[in-house]
Design goal:
The chain contains six helices and no strands. By secondary structure, the protein is mainly α. It has one domain. The longest helix is centred in the C-terminal third of the chain and has 12 residues. The protein is globular. It starts with 13 loop residues before the first helix and ends in a 5-residue tail after the last helix.
């Protein structure tokens, strides 16, 4: 019977550890704000400012609910991965 030797993983270098750490912590500026198009910001301006960190934080659960049920944005629903990214940001404590 053939036996295969398992390959040992090399330990991550400092840069790789930092990149992994950064990637696991979503931020508003890097991960959430780019999801909102200018037309989304304009369309929702009557209720709140989607480009404002504080206002998105204040309405995060409501925004997520509407994204998840497909009623926001009004022209077409977000892809599931973008909705999951928004949820991950909420669950991470809504870091800026």
């Amino acid at each position: 019977m053939l036996q295969f030797q398992t390959r040992k993983e090399r330990p991550l270098g400092k840069r790789a550890r930092q990149a992994r750490h950064t990637m696991s912590e979503p931020s508003f500026e890097r991960d959430v704000l780019p999801l909102f198009r200018a037309e989304d910001v304009d369309a929702m301006s009557f209720a709140f400012d989607l480009s404002s960190y504080s206002e998105v934080c204040e309405h995060a659960e409501e925004i997520h609910e509407r994204l998840a049920d497909g009623t926001m944005p009004c022209d077409s629903p977000w892809p599931a991965e973008d909705i999951a990214r928004f949820r991950a940001w909420i669950d991470a404590g809504m870091p800026s």
